[in-house]
Amino acid sequence: MRSIRPICFYMFTSLWKRKPLLLAIVMVTSFTIIALQYNSVTESRDKRKDYHSSDHSLRNGRNVDLKDGASLPRRNLSALGLDRSNSNHKLNDDSQYNDKNSGRLSYDSADKKQYISPAPYEPLFGKKFANFFNSNEKRKNNQESPKEKNPYYVPPFRLVHFDLKGAPPKISYLKSILPIIKEAGANGILIEYEDMFPYENYLSDIPAANAYTKSEIALLLSSAEEHGLEVIPLVPAFGHMEFVLKLSKFRHLREYDPYPMALCPSQNESFVLIQHMIDQIMSAHPNAKWLHIGCDEVFQIGYCERCRNTERDTLFLDHVIKVAKYVKEKHRVIPIVWDDMLRNILPERLKESKIGSLVEPMIWTYVKDIYRFIPYPTFSYFADIFENVWAASAFKGAFGETLTVPNVKMHLENNQGWLEVMAEQQGHFKSIRGIAVTGWQRYDHLGTLCELLPSGLPSLIVDLITLRDGHYDSSKVFKEFDKIMHCSSSSSIGQYGYREDSNIGGNSNGAVDFESDPYLYNKASSCMFPGSSIFRMTQSVAEAVKRVNDYIYDVTIHKAWLTDYNIRHNVSNPYRVDEGLEQHSNVHYLLTSALRAASSSLREAFDEYTVNEWIEQNIYPYLLKMEKLLKDGESLKKNKVWPRRPYPPLADMKRFGLEIQKWF
Question: How would you classify this enzyme at the top EC level (predicted)?
Answer without folding.
Answer: hydrolase
